[in-house]
Design a protein that fits this description.
alpha+beta, Flavocytochrome C3, Chain A, domain 2, two-stranded antiparallel ribbon
Amino acid sequence: MFKMRTTIVALAAGAAIILAVGVTRAADEKEHGKEKKGGHEITEEDLGIRKGTLYDEKNVTLEHGDYSHASPGSSKKIERTFENSPPMIPHDITGMLPIAVEGNLCMGCHMPDEAVRSGATAIPRSHLMKLAKGEDLHGKLDHERFNCMECHVPQVEGAIPVENTFKGGFKDKKSKSRSNLVDTLNEGVGAD
């Protein structure tokens, strides 16, 4: 019995040493910017979208793409990526920033009453509620949601560095252009 325990302890110690040596070697290779995968060397320059050194940015140029210059109301609406995803802004936002609690030009067209008159997409009911409490604010914007650009971003035309194969799901056709978050928020909660 004692001999078996000694053998098991010796095997475990040996395995720990082999593992430690392997981890040290892998860490050493990573520290020097080299990693073996499938028999060939991968350098730090091969990683990421940039495909260049991460230590020198003298020759880095950022590609911003072309933002829409269409005026509000004249642009084509962009379909949502998945159900209840924040829609992208299809029009030019020049002169509309910064957005502040007491100065939000977006609300001039997107509050429900104004949206009917202007033809804009109305903000959803979820923005007119304190969602954590389920409290209806009776047509007033929740001040936690005043900064539209925390979720909504302008559409940009530009080169796509990595192909996106994501396919969003929608319960119905309306979900592609309208939010139903308030209706589905507690779906399944408390069901028997």
